[in-house]
Amino acid sequence: MAPADPGSVLLPGHDVPLGRYTTVRRLLPQRQRRMVGAWCFVDHFGPDDVAQRPGMEVPPHPHTGLQTVTWLLDGEIVHRDSLGNVQPIRPGQLNVMTSGHGIAHSERSPAQHPPVMHGVQLWVALPDPARAGGPGFAHHEDLPVWRDGDTDVTLLVGELGGERSPAVVHTPLLGAQLTARGAAPARLPLRRDFEYALLAMSGVAEVGDVSVEPGSLLYLGLGRESLTLAAAPGSRLLLLGGEPFEEPLVMWWNFVGRSHEEIAEARADWAAGRRFGVVADDAAPPLPAPALPTTRLLARTRHGEILR
């Protein structure tokens, strides 16, 4: 169904295996829409029954040029990284890892874990000069939470409704969970200079004449001063937004860069054991990088245009 607003488009996700036991629905990047602000990668996983399974098992792997943002609705994952951090994350808590020039981490469910796993992992493209800086990691247990009519709002990143998240990002950005507690529509203030998108993690939301269900992302475009949506009680939605990110990107495997040479250097460093360090308290063999394509990797703008 086409949205009433011509600046909007409903984007279907597609399934991608992550590690040995987890399949995610990848919602960004897509051919029609590569980014929302600096959000350049959106994976939604679950809800999965992991009572008799290991849950998430992603061994050590590298990142450059990005921040990972992890948010759980159900379950538990232990983050380990090459800075020495070992940090469990549970629902209502936020992990933000900044790769800078290079970091390695792993993500695993603990041996004794809850029976259901459900959440999102997102990437934020780092601008110059932050992408050339040092790596970092932050865990946030206390986030702004408030009730707005029949909607509970949890602010993950950025500012909304006079509240500000403690999470540090490097471009103007927004990430907020919206939980419907009743049938009354919610009306949220937005910034005209931001572009936005809405993801249904559970339940169904109605924006204008469009139904947003798990497995799709509604891109809302620029120029909105507010967003009115109705959702079934219990629905949990993720609102993403940000100032359009104008730096062209090369995204390949776990790296975000600006040129083929930069990506090739990061791959070579990972293969040689340089730059990224060793993940703390994780003896599993690191993930090998796939072979580079035989053609040159080209930078793309946020609209998907290729720069040669």
Give a concise summary.
Residues 23-124 form the Pirin N-terminal domain. This protein has 308 residues and is mainly β.
Describe this protein with a few key phrases.
4% helix; mainly beta; single chain; Jelly Rolls
Task: Note down, in words, how this protein is organized.
The protein is mainly beta. The protein has one domain: Jelly Rolls. The protein contains one helix and 27 strands. The protein has one helix at 260-272, and strands at 9-12, 14-18, 22-28, 39-49, 57-63, 66-74, 77-81, 86-89, 94-98, 103-108, 116-125, 136-140, 145-148, 151-160, 163-164, 173-180, 186-189, 195-202, 205-207, 210-212, 216-221, 226-231, 236-242, 250-252, 255-257, 299-300, 306-307. Strands 1, 13, 14, 15, 16, 18, 21 and 23 form an eight-stranded antiparallel sheet that branches. Strands 2-3-4-11-6-9-12 form a seven-stranded antiparallel sheet, with no helix packed on it. Strands 5-10-7-8 form a four-stranded antiparallel sheet, with no helix packed on it. The two termini are 35 Å apart.
